[in-house]
Structure formats: structure tokens, C-alpha cells
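Dear support,

I submitted the protein below through the web form. The confirmation email said the job was done, but the results page showed an empty box. After a refresh the structure appeared. I'm attaching both so you can tell me whether what I see now is the final result or a partial one.
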Amino acid sequence: MATRSRVGYKVPGTDIVRSVYVHYDGYPSARLPILHEYFNTLDKVQELVSMGDISVIASKIHPTTDTHSFDIQENDVCVFYHRDRKEPLNLIEETEESFWNNTSSSEEFLYMFEE
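What the results page shows now:
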């Protein structure tokens, strides 16, 4: 069963958060170690979010082979709905307040990077 979450970053100098949906393993004990170790700078988080909604977050954004896909996943590589399943690119941009207070959201956990 999925534990849905949202990962985003605060755009420097604004009150805007850009974020994407993450389908699996959104609970803090699974999500935080990966975010802290591999996505711990603004550049890294921006690259992660720029890929759109995520099925699975892993330590690497880019695969090393041409065979990586939604159905054939390379170990330790993120699985994105846009790149790996050919779905539309989906990015959300909202104010910081609405990011934290979005009660209509289906995500159980929200993670925002801020410098």
C-alpha cells in the first residue's frame, strides 16, 4: 500500500513552493534518510522536482542504462511518471502557506527544502 507524500522546495526570495507528488514510501523513516543524504542542496532538490511526479524516490535521479523504465527499474534510481511512464509532466507551484495547509491534499506527509 502506498504512503503518499509531496516533496518540494521554497523558491529563494519568494513565498512560492514548487513540489511534486510521491506515491510510495512517504513516511518519515523511509523518506527523510534519502532526502537528507542525497537531496540535501537546493540544486539537487530542484533537479528532483523538475522531473515531475514520482513513483519511487531513490538515491539517483538518472539511470545508467537505456532499459530503466516504470516496468524495468534500475536499482537505486528514482522512478518518475513523466520520464518512465510517459505521463504528462506535473509540477505544483503554490504559496508556502497553502503548501502546509492544503487540507484537500491526499498526501499524508509533506517535505519542503528551504535554504
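Response: this is the final, complete result; the empty box was a page-load delay. The two ends are 33 Å apart (CA to CA).
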